[in-house]
Amino acid sequence: MGINQTWNQFVVKKGNKSLVLHTIKVKSPSSRAEVAHKTGLNKGTVSSLVNELLQEQLITESGPGQSSGGRRPVMLHFNQIAGFSIGIDLGVNYLLGTLTDLQGNICLEKKIYYSQLSYEEIEKRLIEVIDYLSDSTPESPYGIVGIGIGVPGTVSTNGEVLLAPNLGWKNVDLKPIIEGKYDVPVTIENEANAGAYGEKKFGVGTNADNIIYISAGIGIGVGLILNGKLFKGSKGFSGELGHMTIQANGLKCRCGNEGCWELYASEQALLNEAKQLGIQSKGNDELTLEDINELAEVSNPDAIKLFEKIGDYLGIGVNNIINIFNPDQIIIGNRIATSEKWLKKTLEKRMKTHTLWYQHSDLNIYFSELNTHSTALGVAAITAEKFLNVDFEKKALEA
Amino acid sequence: MGINQTWNQFVVKKGNKSLVLHTIKVKSPSSRAEVAHKTGLNKGTVSSLVNELLQEQLITESGPGQSSGGRRPVMLHFNQIAGFSIGIDLGVNYLLGTLTDLQGNICLEKKIYYSQLSYEEIEKRLIEVIDYLSDSTPESPYGIVGIGIGVPGTVSTNGEVLLAPNLGWKNVDLKPIIEGKYDVPVTIENEANAGAYGEKKFGVGTNADNIIYISAGIGIGVGLILNGKLFKGSKGFSGELGHMTIQANGLKCRCGNEGCWELYASEQALLNEAKQLGIQSKGNDELTLEDINELAEVSNPDAIKLFEKIGDYLGIGVNNIINIFNPDQIIIGNRIATSEKWLKKTLEKRMKTHTLWYQHSDLNIYFSELNTHSTALGVAAITAEKFLNVDFEKKALEA
DNA sequence: CATCGTTTGTCTACCGAATAAACAAAGTTT
DNA sequence: AAACTTTGTTTATTCGGTAGACAAACGATG
């Protein structure tokens, strides 16, 4: 039994069926003829595959469409509500759960806030949220097709959370717990990886194949999409660019390293510096990013200078990213993206003055538009896609 | 006509034929039965594909092998001398040309030295070397199957050398010139990328899928092998880790950036510091890396301290690489690899003390064993592989 | 409104490639 | 020498895609 790479003819059918489905998914009112033309497959082949997909309820037919000078086509639609996906962004002090259809549209979401909870408490909230979303899921042929959870930490290839310092987690194996409880495939993914995928699917990165997503919150994590696919490294720990040294012999980091990027360019770095400057929260609460945003909004010079400094340091890391990856796109997301207005100028200045012309010529820096949703959407999309790529035979039986 | 991804049944045949060929290539005395077992293909299928490959002279049959309790198998061999590949390492002050068979064995090589030559002069030498190798190529069914050239600079996706500062090249389009002269496919590749591929194929990286090859000479270039494939970025300029900032607001680099890694950890950095320390060449010549190696060999404390410092800075970049890529292997190659003995300790110390346990637990740093040959061998291997993956029908006609 | 050309979608005949299984050839074991 | 093993070829079958015929549905045209 070849554990090897290449095979037989089932592969062809599976591949073509998948191709047909994706073609319909991308341009949803589509005729058989149109699909045949776009894919290069024979009309008959498309016809037969489409019929199977109809049986599996992954697509639907609707009435005839516009004629283009002949018989009117039967329109085919991707049946986005054949099943639903649950995507969770498990943050340090919040938990965002989304229920999406197979196309990634949000059907329902629930966000709760907390702080300093133990693992057990978080697990409890997590299950509450999943239950809530699960109970509200509309009837559909496949129901919940999977649950995805994005966490702010390193995740091993088999889904175990090895280390999530800001949560205080170490070697937490959440996957079997959730999988056992709900009996659907569960995907645990690093928050930045999931965010990168979310941006590629639903954000500004739709047409790019090499996307670097910088998730800058308390710390900095980076999701890498290389050649159109998430790159996770040999064990799943890639993208720890927050701990890339940008200042040899610089500040000590708890990771054991010195001069880590996130000590200079993260939300935490901003807050630390703000405190040193004597900037205080309006109330008596802990100072937050929102406070500083508000100050900058009313042109407080300290706040603006602070953002410029952080923007400059962000730029240093961005330049490194450009030199390392030569990406199509760089997207800055997570909490710090809310300060785009004041960060952008110095960041772009450093980029344009400190890299060679041919490196940044076709490159743009984007700030996330999905904002706080990229992780949840990304991990939901990963889950949905896993479902769609499962052997079709299985579906034929289930449906 | 689908420019799309998936197709028909020819794909299956091509894939399986390629699989059979590679199986034989990897374990060269192999029987049909063994191949069938390893690939999972049916005996009959293998038989028919093997017969085609025999006709195309890509494999050969030899007498019967050892019996394992039944009929003795007919042994199949990869016909490594069905064609030859030329791989050139075009360095700043040397030019190494190799003639290899399809397996990557060196049949002939020629190395010449020069310094400060104009582009025209280098092109002349290049052609002389290619002519020399080409004229000495043994008779074979396919002859020279391609020419590969590794250059120390950025190469665009279509093979144009955009910038090779140490050669003084800018927008040099060597590919059509060589292709026109010899009428075989020509591959221009960045020297570090080629080196990375060479290490994966013939060096210490054979079994790893994520390999980072650090080519540290005058400057530092890095070749990235991610998920088993060369990663070149969106336009082909990835791997410029030599210009990764490791010291914000550090030394100015001619690239426009500040604090670039190669200003602290390259051969050039070593030489600069050595000069500042008053270390001089034995003769009256320019100081070289070899001079400092010799000094360290006789335990000169200045030289040893210098290497330790450079090793430490190398370690900073290596740590960044670990955090960024989570690779299986890191290989340090090119000129600086000759100083392994004195660099290794501080480099590894920084790695072990400045990254988290789970990041370096399964990771080893290697110094290149192929030494000065990795680039030439790598680019020759890329060329040979391109040939082997060309449509087989074409070969049937040619042979 | 009948005819013609066009587009859509299905159906049939055919082909290429893989598989399973039978079979022949060549050895080994007892 | 008989029985079992392993190798490699051959044959029948199956599966999936393609080409092209065909029917249905529609617009344009006179």
What would the keywords be for this entry?
homodimer; 399 residues; alpha/beta; five-stranded mixed beta sheet; 14 helices; 20% strand; DNA-binding
Uncertain segments of chain A of ≥5 residues (pLDDT<50)? Answer: none
Biggest sheet character of chain A: 5 strands, mixed
- The oligomeric status of these chains comes to homodimer
Strand order of the largest sheet of chain A: 5-4-3-6-10
Task: Provide a concise account of the structure shown.
Chain A has 399 residues and is of the alpha/beta class.
Written overview of the protein:
2 copies of one chain form a homodimer. By secondary structure, chain A is an alpha/beta fold. Chain A is 42% helix and 20% strand. Chain A has 14 helices and 15 strands. Chain A has a 5-stranded mixed sheet. In chain A, helix 1 (10-26) crosses helix 3 and helix 6 (191-202) crosses helix 13. Chain A is globular. The two termini of chain A are 30 Å apart. Chains A and B meet through helix 1 and helix 10 of A and helix 1 and helix 10 of B. The structure holds a DNA duplex (30 and 30 nucleotides).
Topology:
2 copies of one chain form a homodimer.
Chain A: H1 10-26, H2 32-39, H3 43-55, E1 59-64, E2 74-78, E3 84-90, E4 94-101, E5 106-113, H4 119-135, E6 144-151, E7 154-155, E8 161-164, E9 169-172, H5 174-182, E10 186-190, H6 191-202, E11 211-216, E12 220-226, E13 229-230, H7 262-265, H8 267-276, H9 289-297, H10 301-325, E14 329-333, H11 340-354, H12 357-360, E15 364-367, H13 374-389, H14 392-398
Parallel strand pairs in A: 3-6, 6-10, 11-14, 14-15
Antiparallel strand pairs in A: 1-2, 3-4, 4-5, 7-8, 8-9, 11-12, 12-13
Chain A binds a DNA duplex (30 and 30 nucleotides) through helix 1, helix 2 and helix 3.
